[in-house]
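Session log. Operator J.P. requested a structure for one protein chain; no other inputs attached. Running the standard single-chain path with C-alpha cell output.
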Amino acid sequence: MTLLAFAMTPAPATAQEGADSADTLPTYVLPPSGPFSPERVEIPNMRAISAWIRSGHSDASSEAFSHWNDDGEIPARCATCHAGAGFRDFHGLDGTAPGSIDGTIPAGGVVDCATCHDPGLGAVTQITLPSGVEHPVTSAEAACVTCHQGRAAGQTITDAIADKPLDTPDAELGAITPHYAIAAASSLGSYGGLGFHYPDKSYSGRFLHAKPVDSCLSCHNPHSLEVAQDTCLTCHQTGLPADIRISRVSYDGSGDLAKGISADIEANSRLLMDTILDYASQVAGLAAVYDAHSRPYFFADANGDGLADQKEGRPVVYPNWTPRMVQAVYNYKVVTSDKAIFVHNPHYALELLHDSIEDLLTAMGRDVTQTGIQR
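Structure written below.
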C-alpha cells in the first residue's frame, strides 16, 4: 500500500521523485482553491483534482454554494458546510477557537481541497450530532460526518411537541425537517438518533454492511464522489446500488422480491405521504398539498381540489399542524432527504416508514396490516 503525504505549499519534487523508493513518501502538493484548469496543474495528484473539479463539491454555481451570493456572505449557521473557509473556522483549523464560526465567511466558497486535507483535521476525533451523541471519527470521516449529519434529530421533534395533545392542531407547530444529504446520520440508525422513534418500538442501529465496506470512503470516490460499483460486485450480482436487494421480505407488500430494496422504500414513502394527506383532511381538519420543491413543503387546500390555496399571489402555508402529523412528516423527510438511504441504512428507513404509517392509520381508526406492508 502506498502512503501519501500531503504538503500545503508547493514542493520542488517532481512527480517521480520518491516513487522509486519504498522508504520515501511522495509529496502531494495542494494547489490554491479553484477555479483552475486541471490539465495545467503539473503535480502528482492531478487526477484527483480533475475528478474533484467535476464533482458536486466544487460546483460553485450549485444552490448549495450560490444561495448566498446576493448577500455576499454566508450565515454562521450555514457556513460550516457550505464553504471550506467556514468548515476550517468551525473546527478551529484556521487558528480560531473550535466549535463556532468566529468571523465573516464570504459567499462563493466550495468544499475545497483543504476542507478534507487540512493537516489539523487529524485532531478532530469526535463530532457532536444534532441528537447530542458524540460520535467518534477518524480524520478521513471527520469532514463527511460534519456536513452530512443534518440539522435536526428525533429529540428535536420530542422537544417541539412536548406534551401537546397528539391530534389537536396547534398554531405553534409547523413542518420540521432534518435538512439535506444526511447520509452520515442515517447510516448510524438508532444510535445516531436521527429519526423520530415511536415509544415501545425498537430501531436498527448503525448499518455496518460487510467489512471492509464500513465507511463513506468504502464506496465513494473521495474526489469525484462517484460510487465504486466494483465494490458492490464483490458480493452482489450488480454494481447498481438501487437494484440490490438485501432481504427476502416484501416490505411494500407487493410480493416482488426481484426488485431492489430501494423500490420497497420508495413505495412505502409514497404510502406514508398519502397517509399524511389523508390524516390532514380527516383528523387535522384541513386538506393539504405537498410540494417537495418549495419550502415549507405543505400548503393549505381548503376546497380539496388538489391545488394550494392562494393569497396575494402566494400559496397559503398549511396551518393545522398536530403533533402526530409533525412526527410523521419529519420521518418522511428523514427517509427522502437521503437519496441513497437504501444503501446507507435500509432497515432503519423501513422501520421509520412503517411506524409512521401505523401511527397515522391508528388515529384514523384503520389497521396497518390491511396495507400489506411489513416492518
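Operator note: The mean pLDDT is 90.
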